[in-house]
Design brief:
173 residues, Serine Threonine Protein Phosphatase 5, Tetratricopeptide repeat, 8 helices, single chain
């Protein structure tokens, strides 16, 4: 129900702009949410515009080393990936990863998510060894934080299996 979601997010944005001004983290959150809806609708240009607005506010208010800034880079990376702009997607996912590593440490689910996202792009590019490396980094974090019986861990095993399948390594897959 994208139209209803967009209507609600826009109402939220208008209230936040009138009450909080144009340079507030909650305004950035509204732009981010609108960007996600645009991306799901396949409207990449509008999604990118919203995510960049969100990023600029977050950078100016929160600085360069904040988890919300990492989310903005992540979301921009997702849009680039959906556009088939793999190199730009990896750059954004890597920026997100570096912030997450410095703020959250090496053993956090969001760090695992960053490694997985980079792995997905490498997989799409046919860089299978690099994809498996990223997936394995994500898997190690997932196993230690989430345990062996978690859906995210299952997804990582699935991703690694897909790479092996694409490489013709059927026994490993």
């Amino acid at each position: 129900k994208y139209d209803q979601a967009m209507d609600m997010f826009d109402k939220s944005l208008q209230i936040r702009l009138s009450v909080l001004g144009h340079n507030h983290p909650d305004v950035a959150r509204s732009y981010n949410s609108i960007g996600v809806v645009y991306d799901h609708q396949g409207k990449s240009d509008q999604a990118m515009e919203m995510h960049n607005k969100s990023l600029q506010i977050r950078l100016s208010v929160l600085g360069h080393n904040h988890p919300h800034v990492a989310w903005s880079y992540h979301n921009i990376g997702v849009v680039y990936d959906h556009q088939g702009k793999s190199d730009q997607a990896v750059d954004m996912f890597d920026k997100s990863l570096q912030i997450r590593l410095s703020v959250l440490g090496h053993n956090h689910p969001h760090v695992a998510s960053s490694y997985n996202n980079i792995g997905v792009v490498y997989h799409h590019q046919g860089k299978y060894d690099q994809a498996v490396d990223m997936y394995n980094k994500s898997l190690q974090i997932g196993l230690s934080v989430l345990g062996h019986n978690h859906p995210h861990v299952a997804n990582l095993y699935h991703n690694i299996g897909l790479v092996y399948h694409h490489q013709g390594k059927y026994d490993q897959a």
